[in-house]
Inverse folding.
């Protein structure tokens, strides 16, 4: 069971280097989270990630 009041995060980070982002997360938070790196790619934004399975949707890069 997890201890109360552990820290985690959600959402985007400003990094363009995934390894730097992961190191920041591991050194800062108690519970790692899966970051989005929109500075790295358009596909890292929330809408492209979570709308992938919608019917009739085409991604215009």
């Amino acid at each position: 069971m997890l201890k109360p009041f552990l820290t985690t995060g959600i959402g985007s980070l400003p990094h363009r280097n995934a390894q730097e982002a992961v190191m920041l997360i591991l050194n800062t938070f108690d519970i790692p989270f899966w970051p989005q790196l929109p500075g790295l790619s358009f596909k890292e934004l929330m809408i492209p990630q979570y709308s992938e399975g919608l019917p009739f949707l085409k991604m215009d890069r």
About this structure: The chain has two helices and no strands.
